[in-house]
């Protein structure tokens, strides 16, 4: 009897033991799950931290002018030379954006005055300005690409493309590039039209002046645009986009219509009696509509330098082709959209309150680029740009 009671008492411990074992298993499982998740979290944190540092090191900007990303910053003057130039710009009441490069380093890139005076928005390194006739240098570059490819030559005559143009059998591609063809456009368009329609209108209103003598007239470059389109079976805008926006990756370069809606656009102003921003110069779409290949592009200072840098370094057109254009005979003269000197080139453009001045050494180490949205008239900023350029080296 006693033995049976003892057995029953023993059996009462079995459910308790089972519950205890189950609890231990559950706790162990929970611990393992927690530990594994914690380890994965630590592991992920340890692997992402170096990537963050690597990303930061890749995007960290320097002052090296050979890399496009380094123009995406304001560069305040730190050296004595940069401070001297900055003061010179202020003393001359410069309005716009200035980019100065010395020995391949950006020593100054900043805005002066306002991009939009009414809204008190300042000019910055991101500001877009109309570059005017400097675009002709880009059109000339597209022509040189065709010459390098063997589809065209500098000595080819205009009659191969436009035989009805006066004296076209005597006018060469070289003469169009140097504006020594003698051609003039006698009538200007008075209404908006497509690029194709405008070119047809311009070519039907050409007259001959003094053959062989320099005369600055946009008709020469309108004809070059037409030749490009005949050679490639593509529009000028397509060719421009492929070369400069895609190939060179100039992401702050655009045609006039896109400029009008850009948040970074500038507005042009007139200075009256020494007073800045005294009146706004209204947008004139009709005028810019008539600048096909000759003056309807907006850029930042950085993008313009990158264009000249790639051109002079032979990264767009090879040096052999460039040397056939820039011969000793063309020095100190206009050729291919720039004024060519022995050791530097000069670009200049003026249009409806905008002015662009660019001086770049042929070794690309030194450069002065001044964009203004308040053209002061005469050659004030041209002379200022050259004076600053002379501070960078012997030119």
From TrEMBL:
The chain crosses the membrane at residues 12-34. GO terms for cellular component: membrane. It holds the Pfam family Beta-lactamase. Its main location: membrane. This is Beta-lactamase-related domain-containing protein. InterPro entries: AmpC-like, Beta-lactam-related, Beta-lactam/transpept-like. It comes from Enterococcus quebecensis. Keywords: Membrane, Transmembrane, Transmembrane helix. It is found in: Membrane. Residues 83-389 form the Beta-lactamase-related domain. It comes from the Bacteria.
